[in-house]
Every structure is written in structure tokens, then in C-alpha cells.
Request: fold
Amino acid sequence: MKVICFKNHTELSVFAASAIALAIKNKPSLTLCMASGETPALTCDLLVKNLTEEQVDYSKITFLGLDEWVGLPPENEGSCQYFFRKKIFEPLQLKASQYFLFNALAEDLNAECLKMDALIAEKGGIDIMLVGIGMNGHIGFNEPGTSFTSISHVAALDEITKTVGQKYFTQQTALTRGITVGLGHLLNANKVLLLANGSKKAGVIKAAVEGPVTEIFPASIMQQHTNGFVLIDEEAGSLLDKSKLS
Ligand code: PGA
Reply:
């Protein structure tokens, strides 16, 4: 794992978007698994800009959504599906055959997990995974205590996730379960970018990077990834031992 600190959120987003665009140029059939949320929003916008302006052929990529709130319809503006439609699929005009998102309304959520796992296997694994970090150290809906070998699964949400998650919704929304790609998939991904910005993430970044590697704190899994990059801004890195930065 490498930790790279940027001046601000814009600079780290420029870096992340360029890294993904370059990876698509080098491997047009790239499988990309991405988180939604406040942190990666600018990276998504810049990725669309880069791919369009540089006329990169992205017609063969496969896009996987990292997670979804169980029970939310896709038209709910706080859903991950809504985020990706507006930020990636519509601007890039991706074909429906190029992406897979968990259907959070499915009666059989386990079948959704199996579909995701089968697709990841069919593609030969995830090439790039871009994730954020929650205020409890979660990655996707891999909540504290999730096994590092987990595959796609449905998770009961942690209290912190339910509370912090309200920021995505215009009105109070009942959040109980999430469906998510697992930490085993993250460990097996060729490359992982974990993004964090702002002083509110300083504590969780310190725990992820310098704390013990433990399933109690899911983001500490990054320390085990040989091609993992923690991309932070100065505020998120403010509590770190500066000698650990690349
Ligand atoms: P955020 O979400 O990017 O909106 O802060 C991070 C997360 O909970 O994974």
C-alpha cells in the first residue's frame, strides 16, 4: 500500500480520474468497480471529461457498482444507481450490457450477489476498484467485523452508516441493509484506489493506514494490498506520521 497526499480534493480527483483513464487506454476491456458518494463525485466528472476530450475508446469497459442501499428504488436521488446514471452512464452513453448494479429492490438479494460474483469471475477479476471510507472505517457496505475474504453479500448497516447516510437524502430515509461487493474482491483486485478528503476523515485515515490490520476496521485491509493506493488531501492526512507518505 502507498499513501499519496494531495493539496486538496480537486488535485486528488484529477489524479484518480487520470489513473483510470490511462488504465482504460492501456486495457480497453477494463473492469472497473466504483463507489458512489461525495468523495468520488468529482473523480467521476473528471473521468467523463478525460475520456471524452481524449477520445478514449471506452466501449469495451465493464462498470460495476460497489454497493446499494437495500429497498431503495433507482429513481431515489440518494441511491447509488441514481448517482451512476447521472454521473457516468448518461454522460458516457454506456450500453446497458456494459454495466451491472445491484438491484436493491430484488426479492432475491442473494441472486443479485451471485450475479455480481459471477460477472467478476467471468471478467477475470476487477482491474481497478475505487472506493471511499466511511466514518466507521467501512468500505462499501463492508461494515466493521466483515471478513476480509467476503464476497458479495447483504449487510445489516452499522448505526454510524445509518446516521451518516442521511446526508445523501433530502428527507429522513429508513436505512437498514446494504448490498455490497466484498472485501475478498478488493484484495483480489489488480489495483485499489481508496480516496478520502476533509478533516472529518483524518481519524479514520490514521486508523486505516497506521492502525492494526483488523476486520473490526475494514479499511485497514488496504495495508494488505500490494497494489493499493490511499489517495488523500492534506486535511484527511493531517494526523498521519508524515514519514509514511509517498
Ligand atoms: P462519502 O462516503 O464519500 O460520501 O464520504 C464514504 C463512504 O461511506 O464510503
